[in-house]
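Design review, sub-item: ligand-bound model
Attendees: FS, YL, KQ
YL presented the inputs for the fe (iii) ion complex:
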Amino acid sequence: LTFLGIESSCDDTAAAVVRHDDGTEPAILSSVVEGQTALHAAFGGVVPEIAARAHAERLDGCVEQALLQAGIRLCDIDGIAVTSGPGLIGGVLSGVMLAKGLAAGCGKPLLGINHLAGHALTPRLTDGLSFPYLMLLVSGGHCQFLVVQGVDRFDRLGGTIDDAPGEAFDKTAKLLALPQPGGPAVEAEAAKGDPARFAFPRPLLDRPGCDLSFSGLKTALLRARDALIAEKGGITVQDRRDLCAGFQAAVADVLAEKTRRALALYAQYGPAHPALAVAGGVAANAAIRAKLETVCATTGTRFIAPPLRLCTDNAAMIAWAGIERHRAGMGDVTDLVARPRWPLDSSAPPLIGSGK
Ligand code: ATP
Ligand code: FE
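KQ shared the predicted structure:
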């Protein structure tokens, strides 16, 4: 089976071709990702209208590139998978419209994919993981623990009740005049800082369950910064490093402890070989990764971190989810709709349909 995947739900325009034949390893024949960081940089965040326009302008070219690099013609693929939500509606619509046109034009099956399902199924593409496994999705827009039970079965064990950790990293960078995206910049500063100097809170650790919160941390950082400014009229290079180190340590501690709890809940699903997979840009953070690895090592859990380009937004994960769904008989939809919101719970409405 060879699928074309299309992704345009946030600020990356992406197209990819993935092939998987029975008894072989899946192959990513191409994966084109065109980011929009520069377009939004001046505004301090993603501007939906600008994103939608950029997707509309770039999607055709990305698809063409993906087919060219894969060395395959549109008429030779077996199906088209497109992110149909959740995300910024203008971008999602651009992708869905293009996919509908292509599918109609070449008479191929069209599958609508939940973006989060794309992330959640990625460890099966990269590591051949079998169900069930625990997924920690930590990105700029999301933070949640999912038990992935099947192609279409996800149980949400908990998640953030406010900001996503990536967002907190980005805001921290902004408060400390570091460049965007904030994650890598804060991590680099933190490496030279003292994590113990500022006592940042570990939100929600006193509460049972694996829900998380990151907005209080951001406020604590702002207060610590302002206290330094009030005291000395500014912050030194070392102050900034220590603030970053303290902030990062707090995020890592919270994620590690909540992961421990999520693993305990997931044990009730009776996994034969317990596994934790991570996805999302924050999973690139070495300090966070190290903490999660320790939690896994001490609980006999296999730790899986797909390569970063497959952890962040891409279309290979969408093509792969398309292959998985197609195989499971969850086929073609002609009444595919774009959805701005689309929770991934098994208790949620049917994953594909007329938006009911
Ligand atoms: P989503 O995919 O959930 O809609 P997104 O597109 O913002 O959101 P990703 O592309 O997966 O998410 O990740 C980007 C986020 O990851 C940014 O917030 C960025 O700051 C963060 N990030 C990237 N590298 C690091 C790092 N080394 N440490 C911490 N955070 C990081
Ligand atoms: Fe994503």
